[in-house]
Amino acid sequence: MLIFNAILLLVFDVYIFFALRATKIKAAKTKWFSFVWWGYSIALLLGLYISAKFNLPLAYRSVILVAFFMTAASKFIFIVILLLDDIRRGGIWVAKLFSPRRRNESLPERVEELSEPLPEKPVNGISRSEFLTKSGIIVASLPIFPLSWGMISGGYDYKIIRQKLYLPHLPASFHGMRIAQISDVHSGSFYNKKAVLGGIEMLMGEKPDAVFFTGDLVNNVASEMRDYQDIFAKLQADLGVYSVLGNHDYGDYYFGREDSAAKRKNLKSLKETHQVMGWDLLLDENRDLTVNKEKISIVGVENWGTGRFPKKGDLKKALMGTEESPVKLLLSHDPSHWRAQVLDTDVDVMFAGHTHGMQFGVRGEHFQWSPAKYVYKEWAGLYEEQNKKLYVNVGYGFLGYPGRVGILPEITVFELIKGEKPKA
Length: 424
Hints:
Strand content: 15-25%
Helix content: 25-40%
Oligomer: single chain
Number of domains: 2
CATH topology of the largest domain: Purple Acid Phosphatase, chain A, domain 2
CATH class of the largest domain: Alpha Beta
CATH superfamily of the largest domain: Metallo-dependent phosphatases
Structural class: alpha/beta
Distance between the termini: 47 Å
């Protein structure tokens, strides 16, 4: 991934650099422009390499990642504009090459003439290409503002979302039960302990009867939780705090996918961290919740996702012993598990995370959009099919870009309701 990112940024740099040099912008033709342009790119790539290979303080890693994210976004937008202009110019070239009035001209004369710069009518005193280039510079700089604000404010701007879950077979003793869910903590990305604590205090202020955590406690290694486990240990509820593992929790992105002693030790430490915090980590197993001698089942599986993500969970094993339970609530990190396997079971509600809503988009009461929708059919909020439900939490933390734009960090508070959902 690091090599791919470096090559991609280099391709962007070369294309844009020579495009700017070909314009009439005087500054782009100077030596200092070349020095600044390539000096920044080399420094950024070197920073990415050092960040990936060495355990830099989190603040430095965050700055490097944000710089890369904003630079790549701005240059991508600029390249799209430059490509549109090149396609336009190429169309003019082809049209002139096959112009009827030039059919009788010799090919060498035509090619020699067409190899010269294309004359263009000026737009407001400048050529179309120069107009597009200068406009592209302005447009490409626009992402810097929301992305910077997303880093300053959005990453810790916790939002409580309240959701009623209507369950016809819910025992009467559980009517009105409140469950809080968080997901995707990614503690290795945090750099503001006070803000993280503030979010946990917001959650505990809701006084939930139970708390669900749906995976990705860390980015890579268990030690990332060292400075934060005391904060998350504050999550307590009368009926318990239940958790599962996510794809990042296995250490695959740090130790590789192959088994090793170091990888097993890291996973053991992570599981022990759940225990130290007082969380009941469900590894393809279930628990009965009992209120007034009535029961429902909480089921948890290890990570199971479609595509390249780990398929470690064993849903059949996790459901063993729940056959007589009137309601089954499943914790499974990856929402793709719902459509792939869970819909074929009698699970009533699945709680997931994983998508982060890509930490960018728009989310309102009646409308939501994010690039995540082009990757996951179910990426945020509540989904219903075959009288079964899936809720996707967009995450408590962040990964890569240390911020959020439009898709804020989420604390979900569910209220279980006995009965059918009222018709609109």
